[in-house]
Amino acid sequence: MDCKHFDEYISLYLDGVIDKENKKEFEEHLNQCPQCKKKLEETQEVISLIKSLDEESLPQGFRDNLIKKLESSRKIQTRNLLRWVAAVAGVIVIFLSAKALKDIKYTEGINDGVMQAEEVAENMASISDDSVNEFAPPKEDRATAEVTSTDQDQEDTRQSIMKIQSDLVEVYVQDICITPQTLKLMANNNGLELISSDENSIVIEIRDEEQRIILYKELSKMGEIRDIGENMGSNEVKIIIKCESE
Amino acid sequence: MIGEGDMNIESQLVEKSMDGDLDAFEELVLLFDKKVYNYCLRMTNNRNDAEDLAQEVFLKVYKNLKNFRKDSKFSTWIYRIAYNTCVDNYRKKRFKLLPLNKIIDEEQQEIDIPSPGPLPEEQVISNEKYSLIKECIAQLKPRYKSAIILRDIHNYSYREIAEILDVPIGTVKSDINRGRALLRKALKSRLMEYGERRVK
After folding, report:
1. B26 to A67: CB separation less than 8 angstroms, yes or no
2. Residues 6+ apart with CB under 8 A from A223
3. Predicted ipTM of the assembly
4. Is A55 at the interface with chain B, CB within 8 A?
5. Residue B93 lies in a domain
């Protein structure tokens, strides 16, 4: 064993955990090398110095302080647990509220859906009315046949259902969404020429009887028609939007 | 050394503490607080730091009781927490630490060397040696000093130290040997400085 290896085994030797073979070589080197022997003695002195260091007593108040800290730590832990529980509860409340809101919205959605369906049904109804009007004249004919004997007023009433007669029409609407803009769109979609418009009415040009029928059909979808003009057969018709509450 | 009966008391207290019994934990503290404080004191060589660290150790132990696995000894677990706490502290304070060969400052001398009355020459040197060795230990790298403190002050075996420090036993062997060699050299040079100053 050389000095370098000797160094590595000093502590194992002093602690008595060196294996037999190395111990023998270690002791052989120890007897030959005074420097290494000195090193061993010095190390032994260091160890005995450390071993002889007195165990110091605890600083004053150490245990009391520690117990206080432990107790407040437990309180904090409990408080944190409570906070945690509260936070979880909060999250649950938020989640449930959100769910409830969503449910309400969903219900509203259903209501919207119902309303839309109702609108569609109405439109469908008016379409079917239209189709009755357009493609089932026999019904009207039957009606006409039934009323042939009635007076001219009745005949006029029957005629007024079919088409716009005068130059001034009031449309009593329930839906506040029907505006002059709605009328313009309707006119445009049906090839009716727009002459002028203001905040609650439009004036359109009517070129033939067919357009009077179309106008009647379209306006009947929006509300109740009152054909009140005095000038019959005019080629300009003013349509005034009236709310039913008015 | 802890006897068989003490072990039973210890494990009962650990059980109760783990069930949230603070009184049992306080009793457990009484079994270990002096040892943990002295371990921290040798690690830092500073009573205030040692007090703070030891208290921190027990707070950590208390908060982490649920993580204690009963396959290791409770004392081993406490010392591991103590070691980790001291290492964290060392990292925080590293920039403040002085090199191993620093000259003893006057303040340290006043604290550790009894000044009243003339003392025999040998007594002075012996006191100075204790003071120096404490200082030198504290200035070693944490793993070295921890291995030496556990071995030479707390009488743990190499295997137990390996468990506490969570390193292979071969590492413990070389750490202890390396640490002692550094202490031997440091003590030698410090005593020489001390002798020179006394001559002046």
Report:
1. yes
2. A171, A172, A173, A174, A175, A178, A242, A244
3. 0.81
4. yes
5. yes
